[in-house]
């Protein structure tokens, strides 16, 4: 298989869980994304681009997500914050992250605070080179 690793998964229901599991997989070319854990495990070393979109609907005043690399407690990314001004308005935030991965490295989206809306939120990644 000469295709590059790539995946896209959607969140099927609202969650306030710390480890967000985007369980509705649309694309998963090398089966590196696990829809049961929400974790991408690199099988082909290289430089990867990851994007995520998180939607909130006023469940909380602040939703904060970060990307976690290599399964450690250290978060290697800037915070992605969506602020709610009114309790019943939708808000979204998008993050983009490029990182050089080795075989076995893992990547996931972690919620620090807030609630993420299902049906609209997504997590994608693909190998650039």
TrEMBL record:
C1q domain location, by residue? 1-129
Q: Which Gene3D superfamilies does this one have?
A: 2.60.120.40
A Pfam family that the UniProt record links to this protein: C1q
- Source organism superkingdom: Eukaryota
Query: Which protein, by its recorded name, is this?
Result: C1q domain-containing protein
Alphabetical list of PANTHER family matching this protein: COLLAGEN IV NC1 DOMAIN-CONTAINING PROTEIN, EMILIN ELASTIN MICROFIBRIL INTERFACE-LOCATED PROTEIN ELASTIN MICROFIBRIL INTERFACER
Q: InterPro entries given for it?
A: C1q_dom, Collagen/C1q_domain, Tumour_necrosis_fac-like_dom
Q: Which GO terms describe its cellular component?
A: collagen trimer
Q: Does the keyword Secreted apply?
A: yes
Q: Which UniProt keywords apply?
A: Secreted
Q: Where in the cell is it found?
A: Secreted
Q: Which SMART domains match?
A: C1Q (SM00110)
């Amino acid at each position: 298989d000469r295709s590059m690793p790539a995946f896209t998964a959607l969140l099927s229901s609202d969650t306030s869980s710390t480890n967000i599991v985007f369980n509705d997989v649309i694309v998963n070319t090398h089966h590196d994304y696990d829809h049961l854990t929400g974790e991408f495990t690199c099988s082909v070393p290289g430089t990867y681009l990851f994007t995520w979109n998180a939607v909130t609907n006023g469940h909380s005043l602040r939703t904060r997500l970060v990307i976690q690399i290599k399964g450690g407690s250290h978060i290697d990314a800037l915070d992605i914050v969506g602020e709610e001004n009114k309790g019943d308005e939708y808000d979204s935030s998008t993050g983009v992250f490029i990182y050089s991965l080795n075989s076995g490295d893992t990547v996931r989206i972690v919620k620090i605070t807030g609630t993420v809306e299902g049906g609209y939120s997504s997590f994608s990644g693909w190998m650039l080179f």
